[in-house]
Amino acid sequence: MEKKKIMLSVALAVNNEENNIRACLSSIADIAGEIVVVDGGSTDKTAEIAKEFGAKIIQTDNPPIFHINKQKALDACQGDWIIQLDADEVVTGELKKEIEVIITNQEPINGYYIPRRNYFLGHFMRKGGQYPDYVIRLVRRGKARFPCKSVHEQIEIEGKVGYLKNPLLHYSYRSIAEYWKKANTYITLSTLELKKKNIKISFLSCIQYSLIKPIQTFFSLFIRHKGFMDGVYGFLFALFSSLHYPIAWRKYVSGI
């Protein structure tokens, strides 16, 4: 019997995402030919829930640069097209229809940016660099790769890149506690980057990371990117984001 051709694969790298993964997979499973989940040692029911959707589970460790596991998921996919998702993301009906059209046409494009709507403390952000937050997520198999060097990197595409219109919903920060739990991961990676660069500890570098960069970040998000249009949510997001630098610097100086 001829093997059925897989048009669309879904790729996820996860760790302890039992509260999110069901909604994520439910939003895309009906048009997916396969689901590949790279599990970085979850101790909850993440893998069990993914198996309910027929997912192929790849068990591994949970490296600090989590794009390493995302690349493992991409490498394991067999579909002509791959949509790479985080467990706290949901594909809307409109976006799903748009994806179905893309994967069946013959456009010479190997990757697509998708606008994300980021959720912060019960509010979908409209500005502040949080919408439209374009991320490359729909890619042609064999034409996309994560550099796996930085937490803030995008997938690199070989060839042309296009843009989709309908947004991906990102339920990133439902509470302040959840924000800082996730932020601590990014802050730790920023600390490691400071160590890698071997930044000299001096009065000037202290001022740079404890004062100048936080102020620049706050004004960039709240003023330049119009975070003020989200009111108190925009203010809090800009404030919290600005604190990443001094916290990372304190950890670096303390040798944590």
Account of the protein in words:
This protein has 256 residues and is of the alpha/beta class. It has helices at residues 21-26, 46-52, 67-76, 93-104, 176-197, 203-224, 232-242, 244-254; strands spanning 8-14, 34-39, 56-59, 81-85, 89-91, 111-120, 123-124, 133-140, 144-145, 156-157, 161-163, 168-173. The protein folds into two domains: 8-173, Spore Coat Polysaccharide Biosynthesis Protein SpsA, Chain A (Alpha-Beta Complex); 176-254, no CATH class. It has eight helices and twelve strands. The strands form two sheets. Strands 1, 2, 3, 4, 5, 6, 7, 8, 11 and 12 form a ten-stranded mixed beta sheet that branches. Helix 5 (176-197) packs across helix 8 and helix 6 packs antiparallel against helix 8 (244-254). The mean pLDDT is 93.
List the helices and strands and how they pair.
Elements: E1 8-14, H1 21-26, E2 34-39, H2 46-52, E3 56-59, H3 67-76, E4 81-85, E5 89-91, H4 93-104, E6 111-120, E7 123-124, E8 133-140, E9 144-145, E10 156-157, E11 161-163, E12 168-173, H5 176-197, H6 203-224, H7 232-242, H8 244-254
Parallel strand pairs: 1-2, 1-4, 2-3, 6-11, 6-12
Antiparallel strand pairs: 4-8, 5-12, 6-7, 6-8, 9-10
Helix pairs in contact: 5-8, 6-7, 6-8
